Amino acid sequence: MPQLNPNPWFTIMLLTWFTFSLLIQPKLLSFTSTNPPTNKPATMTKPTSWIWPWT
């Protein structure tokens, strides 16, 4: 069964993983975010209770 032979597929997987890790990932991480996160103050809102019609 050729699916159980890891010889060519393992090498392809390693080459793909190293290509992504060493070439593609640094290029993607160097882009600046168009919407940078901001520090918003935590606002604590008091939840309102439901008014049930049968009580």
UniProtKB/TrEMBL annotation:
Keyword Oxidoreductase attributed: no
Report membrane topology. Answer: Single-pass membrane protein
The answer to keyword Membrane applying to this record is yes
Please give an example of a GO cellular component term from this record.
Answer: mitochondrial membrane
Gene Ontology BP, a term: proton motive force-driven ATP synthesis
**MF (Gene Ontology):** proton transmembrane transporter activity
One matching Pfam family is ATP-synt_8
Compartmental location: Mitochondrion membrane
| Assigned protein family | Belongs to the ATPase protein 8 family.
What protein is this chain from? ATP synthase complex subunit 8
Organism listed in the record: Lagopus lagopus (Willow grouse)
